[in-house]
Amino acid sequence: MSEEADTKPLNWTPAPGGGYTVVRRPDGGMHYTFSDTSPSTLAHWREFALDHLLESDRLTRNLYDLRELDHIQEEAIEYAIEVNTDPSARNIRLAVVVGNQAVRSAVQDIAALTTPGGVEIGIFEDLESAEAWLERPLSLMV
What we know:
Blueprint: H1 3-7, E1 20-24, E2 30-34, H2 39-54, E3 60-65, H3 74-85, E4 92-97, H4 101-112, E5 119-124, H5 127-134
Parallel strand pairs: 2-3, 3-4, 4-5
Antiparallel strand pairs: 1-2
């Protein structure tokens, strides 16, 4: 793990009842894994994500593993669009790993409604492809 990631705290506590986990990536970004999108999971994630955007001060790589989800509810789409269009959501490369067409379509809707210049979203079917895309130089986004 890089020194930068070691010094940047995660400040995350699990959501009541679970629903998702998050760990710090070696490059300093986040790796989220969702097992459900219940209202309590979504509310917890939304608060956590918005809090971390306030501290965002550089180009960031995040990975969302949604392979355990069968679908994404409208509320989750609305929250994701809100977070992705927040003025603090700039210079973020976001890889999303999906396990089916329904989730892929929902993520494509989110990407289409995300303000250009803030979040660059890639959709993948496996972690290896997502990681390879995330490893591209972030300077390509600027």
